[in-house]
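S1.2 Input.
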Amino acid sequence: MSPRPSTPARAASALALLVLLATSSSAAKGGKPPGAPSPPAAPPAAATVEVPTDPPAEPWRATRPVPGPEPEFRAPDFERFVLPNGLEVLLSTRRELPLVTASLVFRSGSAADPPGKEGLAQFTASMLDEGTRSLDALTLSERLKRLATDVGTDVDLETTSLHFDALSDKLDESWEIVAEMLASPTFPQGELDRVRKLLQADVVARRARPEVIAGRVFRRALFGAGYAGRPTEGSEASLAALTRKDLVAFHAARYAPNDAVLAVVGNVDRATLEPMLVRHLGTWKKRKVRSIPAPEVTAATGVRVLLVDKPGASQSQVRVGNVGVPRTSPLYYPTLIANAAFGGMFTSRINLNLREDKGYTYGARSGFEYWPSTGMWVVSAPVKAGDTRESVAEILKEIRELAGERPLSPAERDYAASSLVRGYPSSFETQGGTAGRLATLGWWRLPDSWLEDHPAAIRSVTAEQANAAARQVIRPDHLVVVVVGDRATVEEPLRSLGHPVTVVDEEGIPVPAGPG
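S1.3 Output.
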């Protein structure tokens, strides 16, 4: 018996039979026989395309939209009280969430680092959660994690801050741990050595960032090797030299409750918070804190350019500016307005010039930093390497015009003031933002009415006052220019601007000229 065909073979045979029957049927009905050419197709009829016409212009399209009315703002309610140990507390109760945010700010930052011990303030703050009198680092971390309490620290020039978020029903337990971190850290040697390596690695990483180098060199040019001229994070060498004894001494000298401000925002009232703080922070004793000397200022005379070589860099980091004014200066609000119009907004002069008109950068801005006894003002922009000279030239031109023949117009003043006022309420949208505002009020020892009065103070500045402040502070003939970029590409073009150019290293120290 012959074998039965496989399934694929049977399917192929059936398909061939169907094709044959279909072909035969078509031929019988007068259809086209297989293989016969198809008759030529008739040309398609010309299609009629209707071109849409623009709708008639509506009258409202001819009028440019104008901003709506400024939102009404009411500062959040808060109360202020002082604990027996001198800690000032500002509390704003919010019941929307079962959460409490706290920000404790000390009046000591990296400016308090002794010479040769740069990074000490940062190192000390980084060790607060590495062990206390009754908790080692691992136990402390596990307890905070179980409570869902997030604790962090920050250090800048003038302040050291500890901040945390805690569930309101876990606030008492959270304060118990945080109080130990503040009052009785032990700085265990093993953890200290580990954190030191992390901080040194961060220094190395930051050194590779041109924007960090530009900021450091700019500050050193204005303030020398002290105060603001030193990096907050220190150096590899300064961190290596710091000992446990140094950290213990800094903590004892600078972490005093009477030299700090605590801002608390969230689901807690004074009747609950105050006894809680007294219970947990009561053993943290007040002490006298030595004030930090005012910095020596080496304000720019003339226009000088400092160039840091970054071989092969496709971009240049540019900084231009000079010494500013302290926060307590009567020029504070006028300079806010002047800077907002010049470089503090996307629609500011400097950004519209360098980004929108010239295409040199993705963004250019300017800003003031206000400190207790001085400050600084700086324009910053990352620009394409080939456009470095032109970018610096345009920045210098804009500064000359602001202080000279093209001061702010009333319209520019109005837009800047309106933008500052409209943006102010958003800083209170989160508990953290509100805590930051309260901490600012307490740190600067401002009156309770400041939160409410701030928008009105901005509105009260006239264009004439803003321009007078700009002429006094933003001096076009006395500026420091810092460029971090490829020396081979940018040095000669920068020298063609006609200002002295000094090549410096990443710390701002002049580089000796090579032979010949």
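S1.4 Remarks. The chain is about 40% helix and 15% strand.
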